[in-house]
Each structure stands twice: as structure tokens, then as C-alpha cells.
Write a structure and sequence with these properties.
Elements: E1 2-11, E2 20-22, E3 27-32, E4 35-40, E5 44-46, H1 56-69, E6 77-87, E7 100-103, E8 110-111, E9 119-121, H2 128-143
Parallel strand pairs: 7-8
Antiparallel strand pairs: 1-4, 1-5, 1-6, 2-3, 3-4, 7-9
Length: 144
């Protein structure tokens, strides 16, 4: 299992009116309740999930990308947060393409060690529907 940290920038205004992906720099821009959440594909491998401080090197790259996308925008962000991602890496170093449900250390199965957190990963995006069906099946089974 591998933990990685990425930056999420919270901007005090809506820069776009719908989810926007700038493919050239792999930047995702999401309007949310009068604010904008911005992230990119940069990450660094970390050893624990407790440090949610921003990765300053990655932040500078993201802000440089945003200046190219919005040349007149001056950063007026409210916050920058670190976001932790849990993923499984196969022996060949590639990400696991299977859907996986990670749980805290108190439960059985795949574990990531963060108390009270359950993470559902589709592996590849094309498996998202399969993950949704699996989660639905688990919920329905728990209700019966």
C-alpha cells in the first residue's frame, strides 16, 4: 500500500461555472458553494496520513499552471490543504487496477491504518460503476 499527498487549493470565488479539467497541465477546477477547489496530478509519497500541510514545491507548480490558465487572476485563496490518497502498488510498481475497499486497522481486509476511515478505490476510472455496484450490494445486504 502507498500513501500519497496532493494539494487542494480553496479559492474564495467561483472561477468557473462547472467542473473544468485543463488537460495540458492535469489541473482540475471545481466550483463548490461559492468557492473553487483546485488540484492537479502532482503528488509526493508520504509515510503517514496525519500531515495535511501543503506540499510547498507542488503548490508553486500548481500556482504557475493557474497563472497560465487565468493570466489576470491573482491568488486570493482561502486555504491550501494536503489531501491523502491511499493506493495499492503491485510488485511491478504499477497501481492496482482492481477495485479495493480499505478499512481502518480495527477491521478485516485491506487496511490503511487511519482510524474510522473507509476508502473505496476503483483502481481505473472505468471500474467506477463496478465499485458503485459493490458498495450498493454491501449496503443492501446490511439493511436486510
Amino acid at each position: 500500500m502507498r500513501l500519497t499527498k496532493s494539494n487542494v487549493v480553496v479559492v474564495n470565488e467561483e472561477l468557473v461555472d462547472c467542473i473544468t479539467v485543463w488537460i495540458r497541465h492535469e489541473v482540475t477546477i471545481v466550483p463548490y458553494r461559492g468557492q473553487t477547489l483546485i488540484c492537479d496530478a502532482r503528488f509526493k509519497v508520504v509515510t503517514g496520513a496525519d500531515d495535511l500541510s501543503p506540499d510547498m514545491d507542488g503548490l508553486e507548480g500548481l500556482l504557475d499552471d493557474l497563472r497560465q490558465c487565468f493570466p489576470d487572476w491573482r491568488p486570493t485563496y482561502q486555504a491550501v490543504r494536503g489531501c491523502i490518497k491511499t493506493s495499492e502498488v503491485l510488485p511491478d510498481g504499477m497501481p492496482n487496477p482492481r477495485s479495493v475497499i480499505y478499512k481502518d486497522a480495527a477491521t478485516e481486509g485491506y487496511q490503511h491504518g487511519v482510524a474510522g476511515l473507509t476508502v473505496v478505490l476503483p483502481g481505473k476510472a472505468s471500474f467506477m460503476w463496478r465499485v458503485a455496484a459493490d458498495v450498493t450490494d454491501h449496503i443492501l445486504a446490511a439493511l436486510t
